[in-house]
Amino acid sequence: MMDKKVALVTGAGQGIGAAIAKRLSKDGFSVALVGRHLDKVEEIAKEIQSDNGDAIAIKADVANRDEVFAAVEKAAKHFGDFNVIVNNAGIAPTTPIQTVTPEVLEQAEKINVGGTIWGIQAAAKKFKELGHSGKIINASSQAGMTGNENLTVYGSTKFAIRGITETTAKELADDGITVNAYCPGIVVTPMMNDIAQNVADEAGKPFEWGMEQFAKDIALKRLSKPEDVAGCVSYLAGPDSDYMTGQSLLIDGGMVFN
């Protein structure tokens, strides 16, 4: 193993991304936290540093290819190596089919799909430059495994990410680069709260009703914590998953069974 393991996590300012960054730090990684709002990622980076971790905050919008490449460059330069990228950033618009607009579709595609593709490109380029293998980990979703009502746009991007994961796993295998995805279920995050609120508003019901619509079909009968998902990513980032590529792991408490 290398003396220093370096991971970059996008969308690391809150929710799942913040939990992943903290977990990877605990696992011994130096972490670069990327987000659109510098103050948010700086706050999480400070938390990691105060817990004896090694972290930096980088401002970048994953929808912008140049900014993603620059972020990877900055992380590799700062830490002196680069081993793992977690393409976690994403948005989740609530879109009953008749409400989908070109603007909503384009924005979700740019961030969720585009951001993942740019992250894969930038990481693969950097791994090759450094002359070693690497791991690419993408955020799909339980909504990328099965259709979820009112999530046509979000679901379409998450189904796409599974396809991108399989395709690039084949393309990059000869370089020793693995590409896998994680598929969270219903995680209690600011983004999920927004989705539940929107679903509740559409139905003229309270917020709790909105959350219940998602929780009622979970076998383990509880919503996920961001830390649950971070544990799955920890496995994908570590040596125990070295012989796995092109896979999308469900970590949803038992909602979708394959």
Automatic annotation (TrEMBL):
NCBIfam families in the cross-refs = 23BDH (TIGR02415), PRK07231.1 (NF005559), PRK08643.1 (NF006394)
Checking PANTHER family in the record gives: 3-OXOACYL-(ACYL-CARRIER-PROTEIN) REDUCTASE (PTHR42879), 3-OXOACYL-[ACYL-CARRIER-PROTEIN] REDUCTASE FABG (PTHR42879:SF2)
Q: What is its EC number?
A: 1.1.1.304
Keywords on record: NAD, Oxidoreductase
Tell me one GO molecular function of this protein.
diacetyl reductase ((S)-acetoin forming) (NAD+) activity
Please tell me the species this chain comes from: Fructilactobacillus fructivorans
Query: Which residues participate in NAD(+) binding?
Result: Q14, G15, I16, D61, V62, N88, Y154, K158, P184, G185, I186, V187, V188, T189
- Which top-rank group of organisms is this from? Bacteria
Record carries keyword NAD: yes
Family, per entry: Belongs to the short-chain dehydrogenases/reductases (SDR) family.
Top EC category: oxidoreductase
Q: Active-site positions, per UniProt?
A: Y154 (proton acceptor)
Q: What does this protein do?
A: Catalyzes the irreversible reduction of 2,3-butanediol to (S)-acetoin in the presence of NADH.
GO biological process terms held by the UniProt record: acetoin catabolic process; bile acid metabolic process
User: By what name is this protein known?
Assistant: diacetyl reductase [(S)-acetoin forming]
Q: Which reaction does it catalyse?
A: (S)-acetoin + NAD(+) = diacetyl + NADH + H(+)
